[in-house]
Design brief:
This protein has 283 residues and is low in regular secondary structure. The protein has strands spanning 2-6, 12-16, 34-35. The model is unreliable at 277-283 (pLDDT under 50).
């Protein structure tokens, strides 16, 4: 007999025959505050379940189904979520993971479109190959996360902290990173496929010392962004906006700034600047 008890009161919330809950059908159950620490929940069905405030730390939920589940305030620290499903592309079926702890969690190859992860802590987590299309990640902590090859098209990352994050080969087209912190983040370079950030909104974002070598920033808005000491060499800034951007010490080697809006941006302290001017009529 396997029992799921409340983490504080000890009340039995669910019981089932057997030694594990691997593959168990727990859909639409009320499991608020459940103690699931360290359990084997691989392939379990939590669709529509209420897991608010539940403790799933160090839990193995590989391949589990969390469509439309509510996990607000849950503890998933160090959990293995590889291949788990939290959404199917329909906004109303997306799971709620706001205010959660997902520190050091393995969130690889997951389906998470439209998922609500606002104010959650994913520091040190691995999000490689995960679909986060249009995910809501406002004020989310993503410090030193590994987000390689993830899909983050149109994700809402306003105010998110991505300090030291690894974002190579990430597709951030149309994402909103206004006020986000990407200091020391790696988005490109010799050892990785550069990120794609076409039409991304990076207004007042902090990218101090970030590696953006080779990154595509086509028509991106970096108005007021802090790019001090950042490496933008070989990046594509076609049609982008750097109005009032801080470019002190920024490496702009092999960057074509012909169509870039640089109003009130100080290029005097930038490195390797090569401006092209239209030829004047010699007549």
């Amino acid at each position: 007999m396997v029992e799921i008890r409340h983490r504080d009161t000890g009340e039995v919330l669910f019981s089932a025959e057997g030694d594990t809950l691997e593959g168990a059908d727990l859909n639409h159950l009320e499991l608020e505050g459940a103690d699931l620490r360290g359990m084997d929940l691989r392939g379990a069905n939590f669709q529509g379940a209420n897991l608010s405030g539940a403790d799933l730390s160090r839990t193995d939920v590989e391949g589990a189904n969390f469509r439309a589940a509510i996990l607000r305030g849950a503890d998933l620290t160090g959990a293995d979520l590889n291949g788990a499903t939290f959404g199917d592309g329909v906004q109303s079926n997306a799971a709620v993971l706001s205010q959660c702890s997902l520190r050091d969690a393995r969130i690889t190859s997951c389906d998470m479109p439209y998922v609500d992860m606002r104010d959650s802590d994913l520091s040190g987590a691995t999000l490689s190959r995960t679909d986060l299309h249009a995910a809501r990640m406002v004020n989310t902590l993503l410090r030193k996360t590994i987000v390689g090859a993830a899909l983050m098209l149109e994700a809402d990352l306003r105010g998110a902290d991505l300090t030291g994050a690894y974002l190579c080969n990430v597709r951030l087209n149309g994402a909103n990173l206004s006020g986000a912190k990407l200091d020391g983040a790696i988005l490109g370079g010799e050892d990785c496929i550069p990120a794609t950030m076409n039409r991304a909104v990076l207004i007042r974002a902090s990218l101090v010392g970030a590696c953006l070598c080779g990154v595509s920033l086509l028509r991106a808005d970096l108005s007021g962004a802090n790019l001090r000491e950042a490496d933008l060499s070989e990046s594509d800034l076609t049609g982008s906006i750097l109005r009032k951007a801080n470019l002190a010490g920024t490496n702009l080697q092999d960057v074509d700034l012909t169509t870039t809006t640089l109003t009130l941006a100080n290029l005097s302290e930038a490195k390797n600047v090569r401006l092209k001017y239209p030829k004047r009529d010699a007549r």
